[in-house]
Write a structure and sequence with these properties.
elongated, mainly alpha, disordered C terminus
């Protein structure tokens, strides 16, 4: 940074990487200010639509989510998602990941209606792009079923968990972590059978 200057694109990338290292080490209190500084510098020097700026905003949003700062995370994810949809398209893999993260953040903030709509949209996109049996599609279906369950739409959740479990067992097998997760979700949703006296 001393040679290139604090706002040089390589310096920004280095600062972002350092923030990521702090995040990986669990030191989110040091990661967030670095992500904020990197984003502000990138907006000023690279512009709002630069792919690096969009990535830096996503990183900051993810870290805010991780520490439970849900309102700032939602605002950052919404802005990032708008930019990604506009710049790269609604079905770009990074756009889908960002939409999932926005849905998870709304879910964590108990905005279940918004979370359900975002998960529904991602599931439609993944079915269209990847097919019904792709692992990402199965994960998206499980996410939507979980949101349905939390929103009280238990019949929808049950049928979606059941379909996902059947497809996961057929495509990736019963020992796959996703299959086990879906099976546990379905088991916890369904009431236990009659108790033995």
């Amino acid at each position: 940074m001393r040679i290139l200057g604090a706002d040089h694109h390589k310096a920004l990338a280095s600062r972002n990487n350092l923030a990521g290292a702090y995040e990986s080490a669990g030191d989110l209190g040091r990661a967030i200010p670095l992500y904020e500084q990197t984003l502000n510098s990138a907006v000023r020097t690279l512009g709002e639509d630069n792919p690096s700026t969009v990535a830096y905003r996503y990183n900051l949003a993810s870290t805010q989510h991780a520490v439970g700062n849900l309102s700032p995370a939602i605002q950052l994810f919404e802005r990032t998602l708008d930019d990604m949809e506009r710049l790269w398209g609604e079905d770009n893999p990074n756009t889908l990941i960002c939409r999932d993260m926005l849905a998870f953040t709304h879910y964590a903030a108990d905005n279940l209606g918004l979370a359900v709509r975002l998960f529904q949209r991602n599931l439609r996109e993944r079915e269209r792009m990847c097919g019904d049996d792709h692992l990402d599609t199965l994960a998206s279906r499980n996410n939507l079923a979980n949101a349905y369950e939390s929103a009280g739409a238990l019949d929808l959740a049950d049928s979606l968990y059941e379909r996902t479990l059947r497809d996961a067992m057929r495509t990736v097998g019963e020992e796959h972590p996703l299959t086990k997760t879906v099976a546990a979700n379905l088991h916890s949703l369904r009431p236990l059978g009659p108790s033995e006296e």
